Automatic annotation (TrEMBL):
Belongs to the glycosyl hydrolase 29 family. Its EC number is 3.2.1.51. This is alpha-L-fucosidase. Signal peptide: none annotated. It is an enzyme of class 3 (hydrolase). It holds the Pfam family Alpha_L_fucos. Alpha-L-fucosidase is responsible for hydrolyzing the alpha-1,6-linked fucose joined to the reducing-end N-acetylglucosamine of the carbohydrate moieties of glycoproteins. It comes from Enterococcus casseliflavus EC20. SUPFAM superfamilies: (Trans)glycosidases. Residues 12-352 form the Glycoside hydrolase family 29 N-terminal domain. The keyword Signal applies. GO terms for molecular function: alpha-L-fucosidase activity.
């Protein structure tokens, strides 16, 4: 079994059966969300300047984050120098319209932007802290969140805010003392309720800013899956009310916490097996590289792997969100840009079988993956170009019959059907072969319901 990374929290549960005021609204909104299928998440902040795995090295107890490339030799020097990065983080080449153009061409339908990671550095113009982009100590006098949301909305891409409920810079979360600091609040909140109350108020006010000052927000993606309940009670019902005062159709994702405010679940760095598919609406989140944020000399997944991941996830009923980590200058890396371009080229031809589809998760023979139109009049069959060669494709392998119309998604032309001992089949050589990704076939039944 692969060792779980230190930055992945275990889920606290994922089923919420109780009817709540937002139940009917969420039914419609989650249907819309499932139509989108493909999103991008940006982890961007001071950790890009440091070139380390997001802000995890600041947590003394999270030793895994410093094992290979510690930012500084001692935790004291590390924190001191990291906090000072506010003075030099200045992404002069940042062009969010260019970001949006690349992402639109890549086929992304929604984006999430990191407004604040666990380090507490706000990537928006908060009035609650000077530890922010554009603040008195920051040389970059622009509101990055505003620019991202504006550019992506103009490109027709839905927008969402990632927000860490933990804040290691806040004096109300990590006390300014000599105690060993980990990912949790550094004090017993039951013994110091007055300090914790100030932290809760701080979080609520920042959530109000994000959901009131930046136009339409489709998603609030809350991270730090150890914070929000028990000793770190953030009064989540009230937080959600505040968030939806200006965003009544907001989808809230209180990651890994279960219950009312985890509107959909987010398997991290994994694709659920057929037996593990969540009961709730779900979204696999996977970085293009090894880490979410920018790290020099990162290892990147191939376009082939990423497209196979997308097809696998969608065929099981999920959405896929890919992580992009812009450079300190504000650009995408060459590798990320190249992958996104190749993915976009494939989706331009085959996206009909990805977007607005639904799943009937089944293990099909010979590595075929199927998706279904919502009206049941057609389904789509995909097979990786990297799969083991098979010249003849029995129609049963793709859930088709001789009466169905079989269309090559790349050319939109019918595929001829052959017979061998009364078993109809296709020839692999008749199907268009993309340079990357998978072949795709539309199976149209022209009947009210599709059967296989």
């Amino acid at each position: 079994m692969t060792k779980i990374r230190g930055d992945i929290e275990e889920a606290k549960g994922n089923v919420q059966e109780e009817l709540v005021p937002e139940t009917e609204m969420l039914k419609q909104r989650l249907e819309w969300f499932q139509d989108l299928k493909f999103g991008v998440i940006f982890h961007y902040g001071l950790y890009a300047e440091a070139g380390i795995v997001e802000s995890w090295q600041l947590s003394e107890k999270d030793e895994w984050a410093r094992e290979n490339h510690p930012y500084r030799e001692t935790i004291e020097a590390l924190r001191l120098d990291y906090w000072q990065l506010i003075n030099q983080f200045e992404p002069k080449k940042l062009d969010t319209r260019k970001w949006a153009k690349i992402c639109k061409d890549a086929g992304f339908k929604y984006c999430l932007f990191t407004t604040k990671h666990h380090d507490g550095f706000s990537m928006f113009n908060t009035m609650e802290s000077e530890f922010k982009i554009g603040g008195k100590l920051s040389p970059f006098k622009r509101d990055i969140l505003q620019e991202v949301f504006t550019a992506f909305r103009e490109a027709g891409i839905a927008t969402g805010a990632y927000y860490s409920k933990a804040d290691w810079y806040s004096p109300f979360y990590w006390l300014d003392d000599d105690t060993v600091k980990g990912r949790h609040a550094s004090y017993d909140t039951h013994l110091h309720p007055e300090i914790w109350a100030r932290y809760v108020s701080f979080v609520h006010r920042q959530i109000a800013e994000i959901t009131s000052n930046y136009g339409k927000v489709d998603f609030l993606w809350l991270d730090a899956g150890w914070c929000g309940q028990g000793k770190e009670d953030l009064q989540m019902d009230r937080l959600a009310e505040i968030a939806r005062e200006k965003q009544p159709e907001l989808i809230i994702v209180d990651r890994m916490m279960g219950g009312r405010h985890e509107n959909y679940v987010t398997p991290e760095r994994k694709i659920p097996a057929l037996a593990e598919i969540p009961k709730k609406v779900w979204e696999s989140n996977i970085p293009i590289g090894n880490d979410w944020g920018y790290v020099p000399n990162d290892t990147f997944k191939s376009s082939q792997e990423l497209l196979e991941t997308l097809i696998d996830v969608v065929s099981k009923g999920g959405n896929l969100i890919l992580g992009v980590g812009p450079t300190p200058d504000g650009e995408f890396t060459f590798e990320e840009t190249q992958r996104l371009e190749e993915i976009g080229h494939w989706l331009a031809l085959y996206g009909e079988g990805i977007y607005e589809t639904r799943a009937r998760p089944t293990a099909w023979k010979n590595e075929w993956y199927l998706t279904y139109q919502k009206d049941g009049k057609a389904h789509f069959a995909f097979r990786s170009i990297a799969a083991v060669a098979c010249e003849q494709i029995p129609l049963t392998e793709i859930g088709a019959t001789e009466e169905d119309e079989l269309i090559d998604l790349a050319t939109k032309k019918p595929l001829p059907v052959y017979k061998n001992a009364d078993e109809p089949y296709l020839l692999w050589s008749d199907i268009s072969q993309p340079n990357v990704g998978a072949v795709g076939i539309r199976v149209s039944t022209h009947r009210e319901k599709n059967t296989h």
